[in-house]
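Chain A, query sequence.
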Amino acid sequence: MAVSQLHLQVNQDERTYDLQVTAVQDGYEVEVRGADANGEQIAEMRGTLPVGDLALVLQLLTSGAAALKEPGSRSVRPLEERRIEHPNASQPWTAEDDQRLKELAALPEASIGGLAEQLGRSSGSIRARLPRVGVTRELPSRSPA
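Chain A, predicted structure.
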């Protein structure tokens, strides 16, 4: 069963942000509101997005925030942000994942970056997992162009 409405709230540093997403014909109505500790509105965004574009716009906002390097921003990105770039971030490794990692790492053109892309993991995750699955071969960070 599809969800027709979603409401999320986050609180940080005496600020509260609400996200309201409502399914409408051919898309989503998205509204973001922010309030300070006194309940005074400090931010508002709203608009309609076509079906399938919500994740794309969230990726754009995340990239923009990272590029701006906002004062006070956290150096560790929230899991939701990391999963935009690495879909399997913080997911447990399965036996099948380990086997695929071993097989891909055995290829002559294997690189840490290539394995990370193929497995939806970060480069650090790949580096940490390789010895655990018995791969002792030193792999380059990126494949030669």
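The beta strands are 5-12, 15-24, 27-35, 41-50. Residues 86-145 form a domain with the Arc Repressor Mutant, subunit A fold (CATH 1.10.10).
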